[in-house]
Design brief:
- This protein is an alpha+beta fold and about 160 residues long.
- It has 2 domains: about 55 residues, 2,3-Dihydroxybiphenyl 1,2-Dioxygenase, domain 1; about 80 residues, Signal recognition particle alu RNA binding heterodimer, srp9/1 (2-Layer Sandwich), CATH 3.30.720.
- The chain contains 3 helices and 9 strands; from the N terminus they run E-H-E-E-E-E-H-E-E-E-E-H.
- The strands form 2 sheets. The protein has a 5-stranded mixed β-sheet.
- Strand 7 and strand 8 form a beta hairpin.
- It starts with 13 loop residues before the first strand and ends in a 5-residue tail after the last helix.
- The model has no long low-confidence stretch (mean pLDDT about 95).
Length: about 160
Amino acid sequence: MSYIAPAGTRVGHIHLRVSDLARAIAFYEGVLGFEVQMHYGQGAAFLGAGGYHHHIGLNTWESLGATPPPPGHTGLYHSAFLYPDRPALARVLQSVLDAGIQLDGAADHGVSEAVYLRDPDNNGVELYCDRPKALWPLDAAGALRMVNEPLDIPGLLAELNA
């Protein structure tokens, strides 16, 4: 049998090459709400939520002024940011919409609700919240049955007034 990662293992952070550090910070801090924890010289910054040292690293070390990779090439599909609940997801979605950022899509996956968009360097971003595990859909054999249904965006945004 191959190695199995222990329970509690999680993705600690993402580190992205960006073409314009100030523009990337404006998106991840100004729109998504992560806080700059530290600048590393003129070419990098580390952002986190809740005082964590960094959930997101941004750098221009090999990418200052660069263009995104063309479609059809390998690389990051998207980074995903898990919000603690529907109201938090609704707040960040409203921030995205207020910033005039176009959504690539939105989905109800049964286990979670998600919205998809692009950062200023065209990296895919998923913003989502999980449903309680007791509500996850199961098939007749009891196996997890994720779905890809349309997300009720007005219903999600109604959480702002709840």
